[in-house]
Specification:
Blueprint (H helix, E strand, L loop, with lengths): L3 E7 L4 E7 L2 E16 L2 E12 H10 L5 E6 L2 E6 L5 E7 L4 E4 L3 H5 L22
Parallel strand pairs: 4-7
Antiparallel strand pairs: 1-3, 1-5, 2-3, 3-4, 5-8, 6-7
């Protein structure tokens, strides 16, 4: 089983592109999530590339910005590449995201009191609005 669960912050604003597929074109969104762990009492950051497709990509472009906290679940792949220093490196990527959850709202990030609801069909209701 290859499933990774990470919680971290976006290192930059997501980037979107349109790709050709067998079924036409698809919207793709990429971003990097930084996570923290402690090694011998020192904080060490690790970075994971995340790729979203179609509606999830559209929502990410709409609601995510640099610094926002997200939780991502999916299989992780190691992609080797050559670093600028000539040393081989590995990029850890989640390319088939099974679940993503936005953990911080724009209001929390910007110090505002109200944020637009996510486009998931759920509408929050105040207890005072209930008829009973």
């Amino acid at each position: 089983m290859n499933t990774l669960h990470i919680i971290g912050n976006l290192t930059a604003n997501p980037k979107s592109r349109v790709v050709n597929t067998a079924n036409g074109t698809s919207t793709v969104c990429d971003f990097t999530v930084a996570t923290n762990r402690y090694v011998k009492g020192k904080k060490v950051a690790e970075y994971f590339r995340v790729t979203l497709w179609e509606r999830a990509a559209d929502n990410a472009m709409k609601y995510l910005t640099k610094g926002r906290k997200v939780a991502v679940t999916g299989p992780v792949e190691g992609r080797p590449y050559m670093g600028n220093d000539g040393q081989p490196r590995v990029s850890m990527e989640i390319r088939q995201v099974k679940e993503i959850e936005y953990l911080s709202s724009r209001a929390e990030d910007e110090g505002d009191q109200e944020a637009p609801p996510p486009d998931d069909g759920f509408v929050p209701v105040d207890d005072e609005e209930l008829p009973f």
